[in-house]
Amino acid sequence: MRLRVQRWPVQPAGWPRGQRLRIVMIADLHAAGPQMDEARVARIVARAQALEGDLVLLMGDYRATHPYQTRRVPIEAVAPILAGLRAPLGVYAINGNHDWWDDAEAQARRRGPIHTAIVLEAAGIPVLVNRAVKIGEGGAAFWLGGLDSQSALPGGGGGNHLPGLLAQVTDDAPMILAAHEPDVFAEGTPRVALQLSGHTHGGQITVFGWRPVVPSRYGARYAWGHVREKGRDLVMRDLVVSGGLGCSGVPVRIGAPPELTVVELS
Predict the structure, then answer these.
(1) How far apart are CA 109 and CA 188, in angstroms?
(2) I need a surface site. Which of 29, 105, 134, 147 has the fewest CB within 10 A?
(3) Cβ pair 145, 165 in contact under 8 A
(4) CATH number for the 4-265 domain, one of 3.30.470, 3.60.21, 3.90.580, 2.60.98?
(5) What is the structure's pLDDT at 206?
């Protein structure tokens, strides 16, 4: 299956004039045979590395839970490959809903840490679970927040806690929020200059722009691409939703090719 690079130029509200930042997003690998084996993950990592991002974000759903797989590819096999990524401002990960769903112990206790995050951390990849970190120095500094999955538990319960994450932001530097599911964007949080998400696969099956299934309570509103909406403060806010790389439900993508997503901030 071909792999495209989708680029989005974005000028978020409050972003310092003249400050450029290239973010490479790797979303929704759903590693499993035959479509997404270790060799394909390695090719994706090599292609992502060649894009020379200042920052690389791993957007969750490293695991596949659909029944149409010939071989499970465990996170223990995927994490060392992802650990080969390098970027001047770092490589960070967040959890996806399938990473939660594939962890019976975390589901039983209804809380993390989940196995996927433990393995990624052990491989040297920081996993932001309702956590914010400050990146850079001086006028070029910004906050990166990582929100846990909003649909982590049966019945729709989430591990996400946005208020706790925002409480960690201690100054006025702009903030980028990485949230696996895009739906939290509808809250219009003024503190967030830019939200980055995955989860939807661009609909995964798209026919002349029609997406029959989008895993969002807002339907196709946040299915794919660059979205601008007014926040609670009536300032335009930006969201970029990656089309992702793998499959869920059924091992087919139609009209929604797998992509690496590059966000160019200026």
Answers:
(1) 31
(2) 105
(3) yes
(4) 3.60.21
(5) 87
Return the residue matching tokens 């794919």: 224
| The pTM of the whole model exceeds 0.85 | yes
pLDDT of 93-148, one tens digit each? 999 999 999 999 999 999 999 999 999 999 999 999 999 999 998 888 999 999 99
User: In the chain, which stretches have pLDDT less than 70?
Assistant: 1
